[in-house]
Design a protein that fits this description.
This is PLP-dependent aminotransferase family protein. It holds the Pfam family GntR. Keywords: Aminotransferase, DNA-binding, Pyridoxal phosphate, Transcription, Transcription regulation, Transferase. The protein is α/β, with parallel strands linked by helices. It has 3 domains: 72 residues, Arc Repressor Mutant, subunit A, CATH 1.10.10; 237 residues, Aspartate Aminotransferase, domain 2; 113 residues, Aspartate Aminotransferase, domain 1. The protein contains 15 helices and 16 strands. The strands form 4 sheets. An 8-stranded mixed sheet has the order 4-11-10-9-8-5-6-7. The radius of gyration is 25 Å and the shape is globular. The protein starts with a helix and ends in an 8-residue tail after the last helix.
Length: 460
């Protein structure tokens, strides 16, 4: 019997309910006898089912069923959502996610930490994971000891906890770049101190204005995404990073450097701000959600000693400690070298998509639009020509089969722009990038013609 026939038979048994989630499959020897084939044929069939995530292997135990509800895959393939070119969803590329590799890491973590799962763990995070994280951070030019690393349940938790802490400088106001991701805007809406914005535009931000804020506004910390900013995709230059560090030291201000997509930066010459500040003035925060699995919900913060006690108390109130099992799995993933291989693939995927996107922008967007440029990461923005509004354009484009994200809620009220849309390339296949941008360009022209009666000629 060919291995494809074994795969088909087992899938049918799963659909009929004869094999239920959690059921153990026959051993390779037993299955070879039942199907009248060689063991290698069974191994190949089981390997194919593993690749499809329908079964999983437990070391020293065997193979188990992990299939989803009958018909789910068929239903998904027929979903009308497949006809939408989705530039809105900002999760990582599903087709590139390391499901199978991470499944093995979870199984290993269960074996490694099965006794520890019956007790509470350290609020700072597993010591063995923090050791692996310190090794991983070296590749990002973040040199720190495991003692200064704090594992958090996603980087958003670190930001929430830090915003509520009293800092050693005794100050209370916050400066945040504009625009900024929605989570930070919502976090700061109820902040008791004053929140000041500073525009982050092509060419960087106004460092003289930043110095004025640091000098005159009693600033506790400045929050910035130093690489592949959300939503613009911009990155600070090394010169700008150095200048910001000097200003922070001069005016006794802390900087929270969010490097949530720093792993995607393949240029070894790009340094984080943390590399320029040995004094602990820079608080380094990163997440694994955008480059790996959002459901993992793990991130880290590198903190100065002066924030240690307050941060640990606040984290204990929030969730006692981050999930032990996912911590252990991430430790195995880093330790094994799987993460390094995965990031290499992700860098290539997003670099290729970014090049295609920028080419499509130049070819299809009408005069009067402006777009941000990023050749890595996966966010960019389009600033629409007046008098178009982002929500109107988004609604119109949805009718053309393209979904985009109106970006007005990514600004503080004083900086709010109604004519900016954000695009993410993470869920869009390469072949659909140009048709998607062409549809956006045509949709903008249609709305402008309706508003102004002006006919626009397409480029090229």
């Amino acid at each position: 019997m060919l291995y494809e026939a074994i795969v088909e038979e087992l899938l049918n048994e799963m659909k009929r309910g004869q094999l239920q989630p959690g059921d153990k499959l026959q051993s390779i020897r037993e299955a070879a006898q039942v199907f009248g084939c060689s063991r290698n044929t069974v191994i190949r069939a089981y390997g194919e089912l593993e690749r499809r995530h329908r079964i999983y292997a437990v070391p020293q135990s065997g193979y188990y069923v992990a299939h989803r509800s009958p018909g789910r895959e068929e239903t998904r393939s027929e979903s009308p959502a497949q006809d939408i070119i989705d530039f809105e969803w900002a999760g990582p590329d599903r087709s590139a996610m390391p499901y199978r590799d991470f499944q093995h890491c979870l199984n290993e973590a269960i074996e490694r930490y099965r006794e520890d799962m019956f007790t509470y763990s350290s609020g700072q995070g597993l010591a063995s994971l923090r050791f692996q994280l310190s090794r991983h951070l070296r590749d990002l030019q973040v040199f720190t000891s495991p003692d200064r690393i704090y594992v958090v349940t996603g980087s958003q938790q670190a930001l929430c906890l830090l915003a509520g802490l009293t800092f050693p400088n005794g100050k209370r106001n916050i400066v945040v770049e504009q625009p900024v991701h929605a989570g930070m805007v919502e976090l700061l809406e109820k902040y008791s101190g004053e929140v000041f914005g500073i525009s982050y535009e092509e060419g960087g931000m106004d460092l003289e204005r930043l110095e004025e804020l640091f000098r005159d506004r009693d600033v506790k910390f400045f929050y910035t995404v130093s690489r592949f900013h959300n939503p613009t995709g911009y990155s600070h230059t090394n010169e700008a990073r150095k200048r910001m560090v000097v200003l922070a030291q001069q005016y006794d201000v802390y900087i929270i450097e969010d490097d949530y997509m720093g792993d995607l930066d393949g240029d070894p010459k790009n340094d984080p701000m943390f590399a320029y500040d040995p004094s602990g003035r820079i608080i380094y925060v990163k997440s694994f959600s955008k480059v790996m699995l959002p459901g993992l919900r793990l991130g880290l913060a590198v903190l100065p000693d002066g924030l240690r006690e307050g941060f640990l108390r606040a984290k204990a109130v929030a969730d006692v400690h981050s999930p032990l099992l996912t911590q252990g799995a991430l430790e195995v993933y880093l330790e094994s070298g799987m993460f390094a291989a995965h990031i290499g693939r992700m860098r290539e995927i997003y670099r290729r998509k970014a090049v295609l996107l920028q080419e499509a922008y130049r070819k299809h967007l009408p005069p009067g639009t402006a777009h941000t440029g990023s050749y890595s990461g996966f966010y960019t923005t389009i600033e629409l020509p007046a008098p178009l509004r982002a929500q109107t354009v988004a609604d119109h484009l949805l009718g053309r089969g393209v979904r985009v994200h109106p970006a007005q809620h990514l600004f503080l009220p004083a900086f709010r722009k109604q004519g900016v849309i954000r695009l993410s390339v993470s869920q869009v296949e390469d072949r659909l990038l140009e048709p998607g941008i062409q549809a956006i360009g045509d949709g903008i022209r249609e709305l402008l013609k309706l508003r102004t009666g002006v006919k626009f000629v397409k480029r090229g």
